[in-house]
Design a protein that fits this description.
- By secondary structure, the protein is an all-alpha fold.
- It has ten helices and no strands.
- Helix 3 packs antiparallel against helix 7.
Length: about 260
């Protein structure tokens, strides 16, 4: 099976988006706990980008390809799939508690418990990132410029996830390499998910399959935004900053879509 250049660009964008967790790991190692305004704004920004592009681009394109009813069935299936994953394998951002001393305790017992917790966080984030690999892949297969915009949004989303993994690992081991390595592995599941989806679906890829993919991914992104990004953004007690991030993300995404026309 011969794979197109677009396929490999889509995989590359998914890899860049997924491995942005390493940016978060660097922040986590050197800054331990970024300020609440920074976290609230960036999480809100990512949510704004993902919600707008889901409805205005992905779902709209799916409606054209497979029809209104089918597109919305696929959209809600995507939401339910992410809900099932979230229930089966819940995960949390370690920074939701906002108490650095919780992660900086000394003592072997605390370090061992913290290491077990951090491994569970890394595993949970990796599982959640797996279907997110489809987000950038499906967008890039539709339009490279759209794929780039989606990769940007997903990358912002993944930075705090990298922090979530790196902070407790570093606190437990005092090893920058281990903190970076676990953060890297948690993000690696995104390009793996994109590659698997691409290899399985490529032989059957047509407007109908692509329409289903776009609608499913729109459901994934809306669920991630509403269930993860916005609640965590508001947990920093900077509600106005978070909503400004949402507005800014929507404006930037809308502007990018205008420029693509």
């Amino acid at each position: 099976m011969e794979l197109s250049n677009t396929f490999w660009v889509a995989i590359g964008l998914s890899a860049l988006a997924g491995l942005s967790t390493t940016i978060g790991s660097v922040i986590g190692i050197f800054y331990k706990e970024p300020g609440p305004k920074y976290m609230a704004f960036t999480l809100g920004f990512s949510a704004g980008v993902m919600v707008l592009v889901s409805f205005m681009e992905l779902l709209a394109s799916a409606v054209v390809m497979i029809g209104f009813s089918t597109a919305y069935v696929a959209f809600f299936i995507g939401i339910l799939v992410m809900f099932a994953i979230d229930v089966a394998l819940p995960h949390s951002y370690i920074l939701e508690d906002h108490h650095e001393d919780k992660f900086m305790r000394t003592g072997k017992r605390e370090d061992k418990a913290l290491m077990r917790t951090s491994m569970l966080v890394a595993f949970g984030i990796a599982i959640h990132n797996f279907p997110e690999g489809m987000v950038t892949f499906a967008g890039a297969m539709q339009n490279i410029d759209l794929g780039i915009a989606l990769a940007f949004a997903v990358a912002i989303h993944n930075i705090p996830e990298g922090i979530a993994v790196a902070v407790p690992v570093y606190a437990a081991t005092k090893s920058s390499k281990k903190a970076f390595g676990w953060s890297f592995l948690s993000g690696l599941s995104e390009p793996v998910g994109a590659l698997l989806a691409g290899l399985v679906l490529m032989p059957f890829l047509n407007d109908s399959v692509l329409g289903w993919m776009l609608a499913l991914v729109a459901g994934f992104m809306v669920f991630i935004s509403l269930d993860e990004l916005l609640p965590v953004a508001h947990s920093y007690k900077e509600e106005h900053v978070a909503i400004l991030g949402v507005i800014a993300g929507m404006m930037v995404m809308a502007l990018s879509l205008v420029l693509l026309v």
